UniProtKB/TrEMBL annotation:
It is a multi-pass membrane protein. It comes from the Bacteria. Keywords: Membrane, Transmembrane, Transmembrane helix. This is Multidrug transporter. InterPro entries: EamA_dom, EmrE-like. It is found in: Endomembrane system.
Amino acid sequence: MNRNNPPIPVPLLMLVGIVAISFSSIFIKWSVAPVSVQGMYRLLFTFLLMLPFARPYSGAAAALRLRDWLLLFASGTMLALHFLLWMGSLTFTSVASSTMIMALQPVFIMVGAYIWYKEKTAGSAILGMGIAILGVVFIGWGDVGLSADHLKGDLLSIGGTVAVAIHMLIGQKLVVRMPSFLYSLMVFFSAVIVFAVYNLAAGIPFFNYPAREWGIFVLLAVVPTVFGHILFNWLLQYVSATTVSMNILGEPVGASLLAFLLLGEQLKALQWAGGLLVLFGLAVYVFAGRRIHNDFIDKGVTINE
């Protein structure tokens, strides 16, 4: 992991990313296209936006080993699976419930990081995680499991959460060996291929969508992907996958507020209280994580390599 700090403070970058990804569920709810088509064009348009800036990374791409390419494809496959399952969950359950469950990914990340990378987490950071997760549970408490459709949406969101956790753990391994831009570019391209094969096999049309849908595809590419996922991938150079995923816990707060304002989804008092708990838990976790990171730097030790 890079010992230096990014040119812009990490908390500010995290805030930008959280706001950006909070719009994702809103755009998905507005669209009537199949979620696999939304996911495919979301990543395809992002890939095309990034492609003009890819030439400086051609040397780094040529230096990649076969194992790196296989891991990139695996990461892209997990990203495609995440979008397919999570975006599909929004068809059956509310924004608050779906994003609440997806925000539990730090649990999977923390376990995976400990098993694969021997990454340890301080007790104070675990406390922050617990507070934030409790707040996330409050946000979705009112409508989780109220019907068969809600249960189906919940299960889809859980599957998507596991997939994105694996995607992030693979990414943490790869970004120490290649530029984050190259990593994102190749992972998005891999995910596009996976989506294209899926749509082709399922007989889902690639075209014949109204202009409004194409506009939503572009918004999905620019807002939550470029200013959300790409930003978080870049931050993996400076902070651990666990820290990045913990800050994504802010998405249920932002998404629930946007769903209330733009979709008319009602929030209960318990959910508003949950939002405050999430923010407080994030503050505790980020403070503990930054203190540990700085301690390692002061001792001249690199972490998570």
